[in-house]
Amino acid sequence: MLDTLTAALREVLPADAVITDPVRLRTYECDGLTYHRATPGVVVLPDTAEQVASVVRLCNEFAVPFVARGSGTGLSGGALPREDGVLVVTSRMRRVLEVDLPNRRAVVEPGVTNLAITEAVRDRGYYYAPDPSSQQICSIGGNVAENSGGAHCLKYGFTVNHVEACEIVTPDGDLVTLDRMDPGYDLLGAFIGSEGTLGIATKITVRLSRAPESVTTVLAAFENIEQGGRAVSAIIGAGIVPAAIEMMDALAIEAAEAAVACDYPRGAGAVLIVELDGPSAEVELQFARLKEICAGAFELRVAASQEERAAIWKGRKSAFAAVGRISPAYIVQDGVVPRTALPRVLAEIDRLSAEHRIRVANVFHAGDGNLHPLVLFDDTEPGAGERAETVSGAILDLCIEHGGSITGEHGVGVDKARYMPRMFTDDDLDTMQLVRCAFDPRGLSNPGKVFPTPRLCGEVPGVRKGVHPLVESGKAEQF
Ligand SMILES: Cc1cc2nc3c(=O)[nH]c(=O)nc-3n(C[C@H](O)[C@H](O)[C@H](O)COP(=O)(O)OP(=O)(O)OC[C@H]3O[C@@H](n4cnc5c(N)ncnc54)[C@H](O)[C@@H]3O)c2cc1C
User: Locate the FAD-binding PCMH-type domain: which residues (predicted)?
Assistant: First the structure.
């Protein structure tokens, strides 16, 4: 079936846009979550939305699944390809189509990198606010699919707050536009964060923000993480909403130091990076209050220039990759807890780490309670990988127990699908599947992601037996 489909794909795409060479296919076998791998059946590199639509229509004709891929930096295996399917890579769709400053909007293709949007408007005093640490390489299409966050999302909101419209190819190959201004159901809201399961974004209208008049970046070094945690609560409690509050513990600092020599204060048990932005007068007032709140810090550094600001951020932005310097293997975990639960959850993570003899480095968007524990292990040591997995799963349980969630920004993908039943009942999951069915009744768009055991839409590995309670009660319709 795939061979016949490949021949048909060659009819609608340029010759160099269809990859079947086994060596080149391996380039795409995983995303940032490298321990899930699959060689895609075929890879296509469309150049236009119409070509994406043609590919999806052919996939429908041959009943072959397809997976969208942007830059492949996802950390939950969302872009993991299918061996029996087509991987639709958007890396050739990299045009900034329109910049409309009076309306503070830009229209871009899905393969445009997050940072390229800001670079297109920076000279004119604007920027695109959501800033994942991967912003130099991740695509805006991937950001939409994951509803990505970043350090500055505490004050400015996630991707969903900065996307005005999306042109998408629906799972059956229609090209439609979902616009925030559309009356009726918020279909754009449903699409953002749907991890490629509701179709492929081919054009995205983003909101541009005005660059703030003043920015003050502060690094506060504390003896231990509890003191840092208390400072975070006190800052928010004082009514200050910084653009960003990030925290790193001693192990994460050690890794960043080894990788990028960020020169954070020696002996710090935790560093807090706080960025204040806005009108100068407001930033000055907030900074004065911040200094009082951080009086317990043994060192307070304030960036005096753009270079010093970049130096403070360097350690934090490189933290995930940096742990490779202190550990042969690691799992990047992503969970959320209410801010006030941070100290208790961090203490529990410490306990789990000691109990299972697995080191955990903590890096987090402290302002919104989004933890990124980096679970370190030696993959040559028998049983270490399993212990790391146990700790990693137990951290997610902690997040749920404390009223949080199993993902803050990296998505569910293939990695966390098995944890979904810990947060949701079967009925909850079936109801989500009904939404999916409305877009993708044949289950061809990124199947096997997000949901643990899909039981509707006929998606493998099994079909739900009997009628769903919501359908039975007349509240929902099954296609
Ligand atoms: C070092 C590092 C730091 C990171 N920091 C952050 C961070 O601070 N915040 C954060 O939120 N994430 C972060 N991430 C995770 C990752 O960068 C984001 O999830 C990003 O949005 C993925 O974009 P991508 O283009 O690489 O998408 P991919 O990995 O290619 O795909 C991700 C998902 O999006 C789907 N998809 C891709 N393109 C489209 C499209 N056009 N239409 C529909 N679906 C599509 C895929 O099917 C997949 O499910 C980080 C990753 C790394 C490696």
Answer: 36-211
DSSP state of 324: G
CA of 455 to the centre of ligand 1 (A): 26
Q: Can you tell me whether residue 268 is helix, strand or coil?
A: coil
DSSP label of 287: H
Torsion sign across C-alpha atoms 278, 282, 286, 288 = positive
Structural tokens at position 248: 């790193």
Tell me whether the omega of the peptide bond preceding residue 183 falls within 30 degrees of 0, making it cis. no
Please tell me the distance between residue 141's alpha carbon and the centre of ligand 1 in angstroms: 8
Backbone angles phi, psi at 445, to 5 degrees: -90, 105
- In this structure, the number of other CB atoms found within 10 A of the CB of residue 134 comes to 23
Q: What is the rounded distance in angstroms from the CA atom of residue 232 to the CA atom of residue 345?
A: 15
Q: Which residues fall within 8 angstroms of residue 451, CB to CB, at 6 or more apart?
A: 417, 420, 429, 432, 433, 436
Q: How many CB atoms are located within 10 Å of the residue 162 CB? A: 23
By CB neighbour count within 10 A (0-12 exposed, 13-18 middle, 19+ buried), where does 105 fall?
A: middle
What's the pLDDT at 172?
A: 95
Comparing 131-145, 310-324, 393-407, the range with the smallest average pLDDT is 310-324
Nearest to 306 by CA among 217, 242, 221: 217
86, 131, 133, 372: residue to mutate for ligand 1 pocket, most atoms within 8 A of CB: 133
Query: What type of residue sits at position 404?
Result: G
Q: How confident is the model at residue 475 (pLDDT cuts 50, 70, 90)?
A: low
| Residues sharing a CB contact under 8 Å with residue 233, sequence separation 6 or more, in sequence order | 339, 340, 342
Q: Three-class SS of residue 302?
A: strand
Mutating to test ligand 1, I would choose from 75, 200, 330 the residue with most ligand atoms within 8 A of its C-beta, which is 75
Instruction: Give the tokens for residue 445.
Output: 């768009």
Residue closest by Cα to atom 6 of ligand 1: 132
The reported pTM is 0.91
Q: What DSSP string runs through 154-204?
A: HHH--GGGSEEEEEEE-TTS-EEEEETT-SSS-HHHHHTTSTTSS-EEEEE
Task: Give the orientation angle of helix 306-317 with respect to helix 250-260, to 10 degrees.
Answer: 110
